Amino acid sequence: MSGPDLPRLAVLAGPEESLSPTDVARSADGLASYWFLLDGGDTSAEAEVLRRVASALAPTAVAEFTDLAACRAAIRRNGADAVTTFTDKFCPVAAWLNAEVNGATAPLPPWGRKDLQRRMLREAGLSRVQSARMDGEDSLRAFVRAAGLPVVVKPVGSGLRLGHSHRAGAGGAVAVHRALGGLRRGQRLLHACLHRADPGHPAT
Q1: N or C: which end of the chain has fewer CB within 10 A?
Q2: What are the counts of helices (DSSP H) followed by strands (DSSP E) for the chain?
Q3: 8-102 fold
Q4: Is the pTM of this model over 0.85?
Q5: For residue 152, what pLDDT is reported?
């Protein structure tokens, strides 16, 4: 849905995004007029699939994200009140383009540090999800007492490495093994914590 009074949003999209073009379309319906800007320098099969999906949902432009002048030209041609992205590695490009559009700049959390990104979103009032880094049973117990259940356990920063793993050969396999190992350790820790608090709680 679009309209003359809706803000126009440019969305930089990539295969490793945390919000798909379909999710963007669903979330923006009735709230913003949007279009996708895709990286012309990415010639992977995943990027081609992304282009097909994005272009079926909304107007789509392509520019190499290493060419800031080309990105700026695409923004000017298509128009935008703001620029955003749901792909971590495109955050610097989105910040630069936002400054070009309206002078808005913001500090960038380190790429891959989801815990810092989540904290910044909470502090800005954009997220209510509570999260914390666990270093043992005591910290996990304290978090469960404060936040309640259910709790999701995941390795910090593993998502991005897993997203690249199918193209990373042996190094990718090691990253996947480490990420899954960290996840299993976290699950075992959570089960142990819950079982001690409630011996009747299922262990699996």
Answers
A1: C
A2: 8, 4
A3: Rossmann fold (3.40.50)
A4: no
A5: 75
